[in-house]
Amino acid sequence: MHQIFSFGSVSMPRTAMLAPMAGVADRAYRLLCRSFGAAAAVSEMVSAKGLCYGDKGSAELCAITPEERPMGIQLFGSEPEFMARAAAMVQQYQPDWIDINMGCPVHKVIATGSGSALMRNPSLAQEIVRAVCRESSVPVTVKFRLGWDDTCRNAVPFAQAMEDAGAAAIAVHGRTKAQLYSGNADWDAIREVKQHVSIPVIGNGDIRTAADCCAMYEQTGCDMVMVGRGSYGNPFLFREIAAAMDGAPAMLPTLQERMDTMLRHVRLILECNPQKPPEVAIREARKHAAWYMTGMRGAAQFRNRCYHLESYAQAEQLAEDFLRMQEEDGYHEA
């Protein structure tokens, strides 16, 4: 039986939750990962200004289905008044919590003073948290990094500032903005944050296996673990983590299950985007299909085919061909 992780009115199994990843963790991705045991999910980041100005795309990112819960909506922006208005607007979608993005390192986000740029302005970051908390009927969390760069690693005082401003929990990615996604996540720095705040801390960065997840819990003392890129083409990781946390043997995916899941993922992308022509939705599925073959024998040529998929029928044929090639090469499950 899993332990329970909770903050405010939100509770979930203390295993691993899915990170918010723009352009990746859409509804299809969230549903798939939840079905394999992800404890919770967060929306792709939603522009506060976009919502306030009636952008249809921003509003669509806020919709939540029952199967995705518990789920938070992640907002980004640098102006307290817009963030407050957006927080009030998303209440209609009944999120389980609101997360504020203060960690995104992408230029177009930080150029507006949002994302990890806010780590260089803790007082403004506090204003934003207070403004969102005033308008939200659900808990408010903040996701951020270790700092701007190695000369400005301010995660501990920043975390304390977020707690003082009313954050119910914080998620810490163990890299600076300057690192982007390179190098190794600094788990010791996450532990230091955990030691200096009283609100729950969610650890994030470099979780690729169930053993990594268990090690992060042990090394950082964090209250919850968040998985991002380690889930690419590998939603099975959440099932393995849940088993490891129970002390049970992991059920690793067979090659057949990998291909079946890849096809299920493609179907979900098509089903979750009925407003898009199938040929457009299938293009969005290409990168996901390719990830399921990473590390497999002969994967390069098949990943190249993934990037040219034009229909679900082609995805089925690709999976069939890939399985056949593995069998002909004498592939055996571990």
Keywords, separated by commas or semicolons:
334 residues, alpha/beta, TIM Barrel, 2 domains, 9-stranded parallel β-sheet, two-stranded antiparallel ribbon, 14 helices, 13% strand
Radius of gyration: 20 Å
Q: What oligomeric arrangement do these chains adopt?
A: single chain
Supply the CATH superfamily name of the largest domain: Aldolase class I
Taken from the alpha-carbon principal axes, the silhouette is globular
Task: Give the beta-strand count.
Answer: 11
CATH class call of the largest domain: Alpha Beta
Query: Given the structure, what is the number of helices?
Result: 14
What portion of residues is helical? 40-55%
Low-confidence stretches: none
Largest sheet: 9 strands, parallel
Secondary-structure arrangement, i.e. CATH architecture of the largest domain: Alpha-Beta Barrel
Q: How do the SSEs run, as a string of H and E? A: EEEHEEHHEHEHHEHEHEHEHHHHH
Average pLDDT figure:
95
What is the number of independent domains?
2
Structural class: alpha/beta
What is the beta-strand fraction? 5-15%
CATH topology of the largest domain: TIM Barrel
- Roughly how many Å apart are the termini? 28 Å
